[in-house]
# Entry
Amino acid sequence: MKELMLGNGAAARGLYESGCAVISSYPGTPSTEITEEAAKYREIYCEWAPNEKVAVETAFGAALAGKRAFAAMKHVGLNVAADPLYTASYAGVNAGLVIGVADDPGMHSSQNEQDSRHHAIASKIPMVEPSNSQESIDFMKIAYELSEKFDTPVLYKMCTRIAHSQSIVETSERKEVPVKPYVKNIQKNVMTPANAIRKHPIVEQRNKDIAVWAESSGLNKIELCKDSKIGIITHSTSYQYVKEVFGDRVNILKIGLVNPLPEKMIVDFASKVQVILVVEELDPIIETFCRCLNLKNEIHGKDLLPVCGEFSQNLLRTCLKDYLSDEQKTVDSGVQFKIPDLPVRPPIMCAGCPHRGLFYVLSKLKLNVMGDIGCYTLGAAAPLFAMDMNLCMGASVSSLHGWNKALPEYEKNSVCVIGDSTFVHSGITGLATIAYNQSNSTVIVLDNSITGMTGHQQNPTTGKNLYGDPAGKVDLEALAKAMGINRVFVVDPYDLADCEKVVKQELAVEEPSLIISRRPCALLKEVKPKPALKVDADKCRSCKMCMKIGCPAIAMKNNKAQIDSTLCVGCGVCTQMCKFGAL
# Structure
């Protein structure tokens, strides 16, 4: 059956057809939909884990038990999972274990532009990388075969454009895989130094064997053009751009197994061409490998193409114009187009966002605010500017502790903010260090009852699992007190006066404290908006105080405040700021 399918949906279909039985993931754009789509196949057990490390460990345990397993995350999530990942490379697997990672060139929704191929090389784990939705299915199946054939985890790399684009796929039936019996083997599975030191040479030989296998695996392919002496080595979405720009007028080596790279195939390919162009997004990994082979060809890569940002058809036409034929230059001259300058639409917190009121208070009090990863990171934007630092998941809590230990005189003027999902992900240990080492730190958990930034996924604080069914629920108040935080307070971020009172109160005390700013995300289906507010133009004095919260539902028109009734949810935060009762 043929159908149009999203890359992430195709990856999920590949999991289904491969007989995958257990999936544990942490949501992170652009990987989230893999697990959400896989959850539609009830033959697969799916869950959200508190973080990526737990997800990989859960999948490893399922594979050890004898069932094919999978974990998905975004590129920065792989950093969190690196600890089990690198040692799982030594231990190997029982049933197949595939770990999906989605990179984000261009940083559409990420704090850095990281190339996950480095993790594959450093952990000595094979990595496959599809370039369209059909390959997203096919490569997933090959990844499980590779995993079980060579006793290794396999990294399955996506990127934003492959994950979130659609192309035609042909689906097939699910292959039920027998459970692989677990056999106790301490030398294989217990990674003490004595056992691990014996496994390292095995891992090195395994990668050599995989490199030989890769030559005929079908993951890498050569497309020859007898009329051209130009050879392009490429992968992933870059392959699509190469095909659109050069068509069939050049020789192409498309890499599908990006670690280990196919040495013999590259050497053979190089012997058929004069010039090699390496087209790869982000770091020059394939290019560096080619240069180490001492090929006699003229090689170009990052000397012509950028090391930062996403590629595009137009970028390739511009950077590689000297290698286009005269015919292509003529044809392509009418293809390129310039996108007209459009008004900038920066990301902003939604109308009625529960974080806005709390951030307004922090901005008003001119506090130093250690920030974290989530939709509340937008508190750093104009007009609130209510954030001083944003590093990685969970870093706000630990950073506040370090800040206050370094500068005790700033304790009364500094707080950290962290979302409920992020707190469970990696903020709990930071709170533990605050309680254990007794810094006078005020931690604010922004509890909006959901994982908001990635599209409303459940987490351990919501009381629901991935399917929306009742689940265990972390009690944040009880957890904090069990950790040794004696001062725990809950505020409603729509109540500006109470938020300000409690923040001032907790900054004044000489001990750690936790403030929970609790109100559900305004976009949740179960949250019913109130009637939109209106402006009494006669009372409006054009003071623009209501503009200071940065609500997209409020604007100034004809020097008077105006409320967009299609956006306003009637939260009432702005009414607390207007001294003239105009709202």
User: Anything to note?
Assistant: The longest strand covers residues 97-103.
